[in-house]
Amino acid sequence: EVQLVESGGDLVQPGGSLRLSCAASEFTFSRYWMGWVRQAPGKGLEWVANIKEDGGEKYYVDSVKGRFTISRDNAKNLLYLQMNSLRAEDTAVYYCARHGYYYFDNWGQGTLVTVSS
Amino acid sequence: DIQMTQSPSSLSASVGDRVTITCRASHSISSSLNWYQQKPGKAPNVLIYAASSLQSGVPSRFSGSGSGTDFTLTISSLQPEDFATYYCQQSYSIPWTFGQGTKVEIK
Fold it and tell me: Residue B107: what pLDDT?
């Protein structure tokens, strides 16, 4: 069974930085696009970023461009989201998700990021 | 960006009811439309991908239809475990966007 386990969520002050990690197991990580999706408290889902199998292509929602960076380490089966210049509106549960064919076929349990002073 | 609009935002239904949720895209997205179910405190799970393909392991009471701008998710006979929030999502163009969600509650 596919396993995706996020970590790194925390309380951080506005303007601060945080790095999320997602540990993948029980599938060949290097063969799949991966992504991050977030959900603000009581709100809907928002796609954040995607990364190609080899890390050669990356895409972001406009609201995080220039502040967030998605990356991966295929040798360690790890997906990352480096988040800088955090804002209150970045407060959300962040989910790591695996791509099926143009959809997310497996999700982690999520990690909570709270941006507040 | 392609905007996705779901209707209704919420509905009340009884076990055994047939339930239909619609999703409209602001531009044509061909069949690049997916449906997810989310229960409180849990991650979403995909139900339908490419507008009408049933994800492996999903009960056959779930079905999807549509193309272009108008799509439908149908639950043929609502079961107790189906009370949840449902989201559509387009994967036609970046940024991938979700509908605002439809909460299905017990009548």
Answer: 86
